[in-house]
């Protein structure tokens, strides 16, 4: 079954915007790199930003083995949300102002990734953030101590939904004649000119995968 | 007291990155526009993206009065997180790869905003997203029906913390001599060329506040 729909990930508000197919979900997850991860601590929700990478049917994330959020994420259901903002929708009424965006919500219980899988997962997270980076790091392999100091978790994509809003403003019929500019202001992420670490001890060109960085798009 | 520190918003992991002063917190909240809002539903966390606007000592957010997330947010503690990504930190080891970012976490119980305050709050949310927009919408005032259909909540900034990571990679001493390019890839938000709604019934220039859009920076 390719659907990821469940009762709790169902998009109830504006259900037209809901998507449950893996191609839609995967494309959003692969274009993004930052998620907001929510856990419950002492009865109250806590949401923190963290890097992630999709790996097949899972979303990987990691952090210091000492981090409170990762410790608590291992023993409870979490919610992991990724949001890509595509534009501000400026309508003719305040009410119809909106945002163009693509978001994914994944719910479930994370599993600990260990052993050889853990090393592969850490490389995968780096490689998904900057394709080609793992090869560039070959002169400096991960150490056992570093691997032990890091916790890697993976959340299955079994319960997930995407929500997408695209296109121009949708106004009330009688408002189209009003003298108000309406349209969309596109919003995207810009990757700037790389800043070489002044502590570099040798002359090296900025590698092309960093100088010409871009995220995968569907 | 200007500090917003509390036990549960204290930055425990890498405490040097924690800030509890309102100028730091306010600057991040004012530059951002999208938050991730977490509630607890049936014992599990749920985190959704939504627009917000700081209004003095509160963060305002809103949505359809019919939305599940807003209904549940009124009667429980929530966590509202804003993250601005400033760069990818590409170090000489996978371990020291990092992200430059500024984030704010606010916890607390949202209060319902009603009456005249509600109308003012809705205008404030539009105006913080696009300064000057409320005046442009003057020919089309909000209707009572629209106001009733919208729920506005405000979360006090009493319990909040900021976390900031800036600067270049910090590598292990022995790694600086390795032949690995290291540095920072700057990341920022780009606001593109406005797309006028083809359904516009009259010729109008794109207003300057939209054509030259930028977020306030500290």
Give a verbal description of the structure.
The structure is a homodimer of 218-residue chains. Chain A is an alpha+beta fold and 218 residues long. Chain A has one domain (15-211): Pnp Oxidase, Chain A (Roll). The first copy, chain A, has six helices and eleven strands. Chain A has helices at 22-31, 68-73, 115-129, 133-136, 144-149, 208-211, and strands at 18-19, 34-41, 44-55, 58-64, 78-90, 98-108, 111-112, 150-156, 159-165, 183-191, 195-196. In chain A, strands 1, 2, 3, 4, 5, 6, 7, 8, 9 and 10 form a ten-stranded antiparallel beta sheet that branches. The longest helix of chain A is centred in the middle third of the chain and has 15 residues, at 115-129. The radius of gyration of chain A is 20 Å and the shape is globular. The two termini of chain A are 22 Å apart. The mean pLDDT of chain A is 94. The interface between A and B is large, with 99 and 99 residues.
Keywords:
homodimer; 218 residues; alpha+beta; Pnp Oxidase, Chain A; 11 strands; 37% strand
Task: Give the chain pair forming the largest contact, with residue counts.
Answer: A-B, 99 and 99 residues
Largest sheet of chain A: 10 strands, antiparallel
Spatial gap, N to C terminus of chain A: 22 Å
Count of discrete domains of chain A:
1
Give the oligomer, counting copies of the same chain as homo and different chains as hetero.
Answer: homodimer
CATH topology of chain A: Pnp Oxidase, Chain A
Radius of gyration of chain A: 20 Å
Q: What overall geometry of chain A do the principal axes of the alpha carbons give?
A: globular
SSE-based structural type of chain A: alpha+beta
Range of helix content of chain A: 10-25%
CATH architecture classification of chain A: Roll
How many helices of chain A? The count is 6
